[in-house]
Design goal:
The structure holds 2 protein chains of 2 kinds.
Chain A (H helix, E strand, L loop, with lengths): L2 E8 L2 E10 L1 H17 L4 E12 L1 H16 L4 E4 L3 H9 L7 E3 L2 H7 L5
Parallel strand pairs in A: 2-3, 3-4, 4-5
Antiparallel strand pairs in A: 1-2
Chain B lengths: L1 E9 L4 H13 L6 H22 L7 E9 L2 E8 L7 H5 L15 H8 L2 E7 L3 E9 L1 H7 L1
Antiparallel strand pairs in B: 1-2, 2-3, 3-5, 4-5
Helix pairs in contact in B: 1-2, 2-4
Chain lengths: 117, 146
């Protein structure tokens, strides 16, 4: 199963929804697309919705951390939502939630970042 | 019951998903839990990705070999390449260490393998390549035997 990515902008927030499997092979494309969207749109924060992500390995952590650093350097936040227990284990192992916030769903994430839904 | 299988494939990134799905399908005969299957798929993905990126520097003509043996609820996985080899294995196994930060590698590959498996051995020498040996005892099979 490959990865499909959906990007949407709401005010100053970029919503990124990942569906499928994120490994090194898929991470290369995701990085290109994600970087180009961040360059094209004036967004400050990112919400990463992982509801449809059925598999991820450390290559996924790398690409997410890479984008976090970019938006964090400009004062933005990254909020993760709808994560599965399997994927959450990898985030926990690498201490990602020390720097990113985790909420239950997209609605809460938007609310946290002050976007009216 | 003992059973084993061998795989050989080229160092192209499309084979990362092929390798993890194939190993998971083979191990399924031990009736592992979903959590164990996820762990196995993840470590195969980590080791094969290491072989492609670090062993063969993403050149697509290297060969990667996987052998998987299951024996009474124990799984032994060997993932081997004939690539560059690891100069300092202890350093490579440290959490968050990566020799390729410019490629946005997280440096978590070996840490994940150590957390998800019962035993991880790394045998490597420069110019000869790297073999990662992973052992895991599957819980469901123990319960079944009782």
């Amino acid at each position: 199963m490959s990865l499909s990515v959906d990007f949407a902008c709401k005010e100053d927030v970029l919503l990124v929804r990942l569906v499928g499997e994120l490994d090194h092979h898929e991470a290369e494309n995701l990085k290109k697309e994600w970087k180009s969207i961040l360059n094209q749109h004036q967004v400050r924060h990112v919400i990463l919705n992982l509801e449809g992500l059925s598999f991820m390995d450390s290559s996924g952590l790398g690409v997410i951390l890479g984008r976090y650093k970019e938006i964090n350097a400009l004062g933005g936040e990254m909020v993760i939502c709808s994560i599965s227990p399997e994927v959450k284990r990898l985030f926990d192992l690498s201490g990602m939630f020390k720097i990113m916030k985790l909420v239950d769903n997209e609605e809460f994430a938007l609310e946290m970042l002050g976007v009216a839904s | 019951m003992k059973n084993s299988m061998n795989l050989e494939f080229l160092s192209v990134s499309q084979n990362e998903s092929f390798a993890r799905v194939t190993v998971a399908a083979f191990v399924s005969q031990l009736d592992p839990t979903m959590e164990e299957l996820t762990e196995i798929k993840t470590v195969v993905s980590e080791a094969v990705t290491n072989a492609i990126i670090h062993g063969y520097h993403e050149l697509p003509d290297g060969k990667i070999y996987i052998s998987c043996t299951i024996n009474d609820g124990e799984m032994e996985l060997m993932i081997q390449d004939h690539g560059e080899g690891i100069a300092d294995i202890d350093e490579a196994r440290e959490p968050l260490f990566t020799s390729k930060p410019e490629l946005e590698r997280s440096g978590m590959g070996f840490t994940i393998m150590e957390n998800f498996m019962d035993k991880v051995d790394v045998i490597s020498s420069p110019e000869e390549g790297t073999t990662v040996r992973l052992i895991k005892h599957l819980t469901t099979n123990k319960a079944y035997c009782n």
